[in-house]
Amino acid sequence: MELASSIAALHDPGSRAKAAAELARRVGGDALLIFVWDERAEVFVPARGMRGSIPGGPEWKAFLQPNPEERIFRFELPDAPEGPLLPVVALANALCIFAFFGGLGEERLEPLRPFLPLLGTLFRLENMERDAQARARLADDSAAQANQLSQALNTTRCALEQALRESREVGRSYASQAAALRASEAQLRDLMKKLEASNRELEQFAYVAAHDLQEPLRTLSNFCGLLRKRNAEQLDDGGKEYLRFILNAAGRALDLIEDLLRFSRIGNDELAARPVDCSAAVAAALAALDAAIIESGVDIRCASLPIVDADERQLTQVFQNLLGNAIKFRRKERPRIEISAEEQPDAWKIVVADNGIGIRPEYHARIFAVFQRLHSRELYPGTGIGLAICKKIIERHGGEIGVASTGEAGSRFFFTIPKQRPPQPAPHTELNVPP
Ligand code: ADP
Q: Which atom of ligand 1 has the smallest separation from the CA of 372?
C-alpha cells in the first residue's frame, strides 16, 4: 500500500523528485531517476521534475542512451568524474526507464513492473503537452512576428505608394513643364521668323527708299551744277554760297545713299565663299587705297596670313575699310599698321593694329552700328557705315568682329573667320529691285 502511494505521488511533476527519492528508499536504493522516450529527439530524456544530481555523483543534465534489448544503459554525464559509474538497476519498457542507484537487487523492483506502462504513458503525455505548449508559444511568436512583418510590409507598401504617387506627380509636372517649354520654343521660333521677316522687309524698304531717292537727288545735284555753270554771273555772292551748300548737301546725301545701298546689298547676294588667300585680299585693298597710302606715308607691315574660306570681294572690302580707317584716324606722327593672324582651334583671327587716335572703350560697340561716327566730317570725312559693313560681312561668314583700344595708344581691330563655315540662310529672293 505504501509502495502504491509512493508510485501515485510520482504523477505530480512538482513533487516528483521527492516521490522518486521516497520510492528508491522503499525498494532499498539510494536514488531514482526516471527517463521518458522523446520521439522527436529519439532518445530518453529526464522526465519532468527529475532534474537533479545523481546521489554522490555529478549533475546529470543530458539524457540516457539506452539499448533496451540488451538491457544496457549508459548515462551521458557531461561532467562525469573519472572512475566506475555508480551501480544502477533499471526497470524499463519502450516508454520509460526507472534507474535506481545504490546496492539493490532486480527482484526488489518486480512489484513496480505492473505500473510501468501507465507511468510511461503519463510521462509521455507530459512531454507531449510540453511540446504542444512550446509549439503553441512558437506559433504565438510566429504570429506576432508575422504580424510585425505584415505591419512593416504595410508601412513599406504605403511608403512605396506615396513615392509612386509623388513620382507620378513629378512626372506630370515635368511633362507639363516640357510641354510649356516646347510651346515657348515654338513661340520663340515663330517670333524669330517674324523678326527675320520684318528685318528683311525693313532692309528691303531701306534699299528701295535709298534706291528711289538716288534719282531725284541726282537730278537736283545735276541741275544745281548746271545753274552754277550757266547762271552763276546772275547770282550775287550770297546766292552762289547757297548754291554751294545745296550742291554739298546733295553730294553728301548721294554718298550716304550709295553707302546704304552697299550695306543693303551685302545681305542680298549669295555668299560666294571659296578658299581665299588673305594676303591677296590685303594686296587688293592696298591697291584701292593707293592714293591715301602715298599721301599719308603710312608704314604697313603684314605678317604671313592664312588661306580662309570666304567671299573674296567681301573680305577685300573688310580689309579696305579697316586699313582705310587706320590711315584716316591717324595722329600727327607717321602712321604705322601691322596686319597679323592667329590660329584658333576653330577659326582664324586676323588683327589690324594701328598707332592712330584710338577709341575710348565706351564707344567700342557703337562704332559698328550704321552711321555712327565719333568725330565731325570736317575733322575726319566719312559716312559712318564702313565698320557696319565689316560687321555684316564677318557675321555672314559666321565670325566675330571687335576692337581693343584704350583710347590713347592706337587701336587693334580684329575679326575671325571660322575654319568651317556654318550653314547659310537662303538669300532674300523677294527683293526685286535693280542693283
Ligand atoms: P567712317 O570711317 O566713315 O567714319 P566707320 O564705320 O568706318 O565710319 O567708323 C566709325 C567710327 O569709328 C569712325 O567715325 C571713327 O570714329 C571710329 N574709328 C574707326 N576706325 C578707327 C581707327 N582705326 N582709329 C580710331 N577710330 C576709328
A: 10
Query: Is residue 304's pLDDT more than 80?
Result: yes
Name which of 323-327, 355-359, 416-420, 423-427 the model is least confident about: 423-427
The DSSP code sequence of 105-167 is: -GGGGGGGGGGHHHHHHHHHHHHHHHHHHHHHHHHHHHHHHHHHHHHHHHHHHHHHHHHHHHH
In Å, how far from its chain's centre is CA 119? 80
Summarize pLDDT for 306-347 with one digit per residue, the tens: 999 999 999 999 999 999 999 999 999 999 999 999 999 999
Q: Whose CA is nearest to atom 4 of ligand 1?
A: 384
Answer with the residue of higher pLDDT: 58 or 23. Answer: 23
User: If you measure from the C-alpha of residue 392 to the centroid of ligand 1, how many angstroms do you get, rounded to a whole number?
Assistant: 16
Q: Which H or E element spans position 311?
A: strand 307-311
> Whose CA is closest to 23, among 94, 109, 105, 147?
109
* Cβ 351 vs Cβ 376: under 8 Å: no
- For 275, residues 6+ apart whose C-beta sits below 8 A from its C-beta are 307, 308, 309
pTM of the model: 0.56
Q: Whose CA is nearest to atom 20 of ligand 1?
A: 325
Residue 212 Cα, ligand 1 centroid: separation in angstroms? 28
The set of protein residues with a Cβ atom below 6 angstroms from ligand 1 is 321, 325-326, 329, 354, 356-357, 359, 367, 372-375, 382-388, 411
Q: Find the 367 Cα to ligand 1 centroid distance in Å.
A: 7
Ligand 1 mutation pick, 262, 319, 323, 325, max ligand atoms within 8 A of CB: 325
Average pLDDT, the chain: 83
